[in-house]
Design goal:
Elements lengths: L41 H8 L4 H27 L1 H4 L5 H47 L5 H37 L3 H17 L1 H13 L6 H26 L6 H4 L10 H4 L1 H8 L1 H33 L4 H26 L1 H21 L7 H29 L4 H21 L6 H30 L10
């Protein structure tokens, strides 16, 4: 029985007081330990139990979101321009492929190890420097600068995303316990807010490049330098947002280490492999995670090049992608809020219906400049599906693998990167229709296996991932 169950356990009456008829009152022996009764406010108790207040958690969620917004406003837009800016001998495309090849190798080894050394905050910060180095290399884009910078970026990308996902999952878990809300609900909401802010990078980055390159009288080289300079500046702002404003967290498993226990272990290097081998849910989610990379590569590369540029001109690519970014950002936030009422499954069904409808339409439709509005409709529909894929798959990983988030999100980035590599690998070797058939097949297999995960989870825990408000 604990002292909380018996509040008088530390009170020891004197022997004289036990005698019948004595006037002496029992003497209290006060324990050196804190009193078991309430002498502190609820707020003080909450601070002792959790390292952050609810307000601090929300603040850090926004800091992470805006830090990534500034960084990827630069990187995503610069990546979209690589095939145009650095097209000699395919330097830009080979650079992007190199990024994701290095990212795959990084995912297999580095994230748990780096996060264990630096913690989530400084892993994010130092990984951002890898992105900035790649952007600086574009000022003098040759094989000797772009390829090494791409390798460094790929190595830093896996720890960056794993640390971000771990940070949001950990703080979301604290917030759920503090508020009494469902863990899945809060993690979904956090990822929804993050991707709402993050996906607007498509808007600002495309707007910047469109405005710079549409200026009259500016030669191409000065336009490249202007764009690269703006992008490097934005990325540096994101770096300083993280380093100056983000609070450091200690992961629960790190806090539970025994004093003197080594922080580093060779087992950490193989944690990602062990997670993949030992966890059946992870294996089943591989096709859907690969599709996440394939569909992003298709909309950014094949849709813009094969449909928009060829039909209505390259100067309209930015505006079509702004539509995609706006819808993606809005739906990311909205779906993250609505999932607590309807659960994951309806949104995955929505993503399946929307994306397969777009893909069949692109197979059957002959692009026509007179049907200019169709390009925006297709971009918006693709954005709806991408919002589901990005927010719900991330949240699903956070919910399923909350006991080992670093290794889980390392696997997520690994297999998503495989999707990008596949898409870049066949980009110049297959016609667009074949790529669309591959997207359809990948989507169908991924969604079917996701359904298997739902069934297995229902059987093992007698509940689904569908969340209903706690009563």
């Amino acid at each position: 029985m604990s002292r909380m169950d018996n509040p008088g356990a530390d009170i020891e009456p004197s022997k004289e007081a036990l005698a019948f008829g004595t006037d002496e009152k029992p003497k209290a022996k006060i324990s050196d330990s804190p009193p078991p009764y309430d002498e502190t406010s609820n707020d003080d108790k909450r601070k002792q139990e959790y390292p952050m207040t609810r307000l601090q958690i929300i603040k850090n969620l926004l800091v992470v979101s805006f830090g990534f917004l500034f960084l990827f406003t630069s990187f995503q837009s610069l990546a979209n321009l690589q095939s145009s800016l650095n097209r000699e001998e395919g330097l830009g495309t080979w650079g992007l492929a190199t990024i994701y090849i290095a990212l795959v190798l990084s995912c297999m080894f580095l994230p748990p190890f780096i996060i264990d050394i630096l913690g989530c905050k400084w892993t994010v910060a130092f990984s951002m420097l890898c992105y900035i180095l790649y952007m600086v290399a574009n000022f003098y884009a040759v094989w000797g600068t772009i390829i090494p910078a791409a390798i460094i970026l790929g190595i830093g990308a896996a720890p960056l995303w794993s640390a971000k996902c771990t940070y949001l999952t950990e703080t979301g878990t604290w917030y759920a316990k503090m508020t009494g809300a469902s863990h899945d609900d809060i993690v979904n909401r956090f990822f929804g807010i993050f991707f709402m802010i993050f996906q607007t990078s498509q808007i600002w980055g495309n707007l910047i490049s469109s405005l710079v390159f549409s200026e009259r009288g500016q030669n191409a080289s000065s336009g490249v330098y202007t764009v690269c300079g703006i992008y490097v500046g934005f990325a540096c702002i994101g770096f300083f947002i993280i380093t100056l404003l983000l609070d450091r967290i200690v992961l629960d498993k790190e806090a539970a280490r025994a004093p003197g226990q080594k922080r580093l272990s060779f087992d950490l290097v193989w944690e990602t492999f062990r997670h993949l081998i030992n966890n059946h849910y992870q294996k089943l989610l591989i096709p859907l995670t690969i599709y996440s990379g394939v569909e992003q590569a298709f909309i950014a590369g094949d849709f813009t090049r094969s449909y928009v540029s060829c039909s209505v001109g390259i100067w309209n690519v930015g505006y079509v992608m702004i539509c995609y970014g706006v819808v993606d950002a809005f739906c990311s936030f909205t779906f993250g809020r609505l999932v607590q009422y309807v659960g994951h499954i309806p949104f995955f069904i929505l993503a399946f219906v929307v994306h397969i409808s777009c893909q069949i339409t692109l197979l059957l439709w002959l692009p026509n400049p007179d049907q200019f509005y169709v390009f925006f409709i297709l971009a918006a529909m693709w954005g709806i599906g991408d919002a589901v894929i990005q927010t719900q798959v991330n949240a699903l990983y956070g919910w399923l693998f909350s006991d080992n988030p670093e290794a889980a999100f390392s696997n997520y980035r690994l297999w998503e990167s495989v999707g990008f590599i596949i898409a870049f690998g066949y980009s110049f070797n297959l016609c667009t229709s074949v790529k669309l058939y591959f997207c359809i097949g990948n989507l169908v297999v991924g969604m079917v296996l996701y359904g298997v995960v739902e069934v297995l989870q229902r059987r093992s825990k007698s509940k689904s991932f569908d969340i209903t408000p706690t009563k």
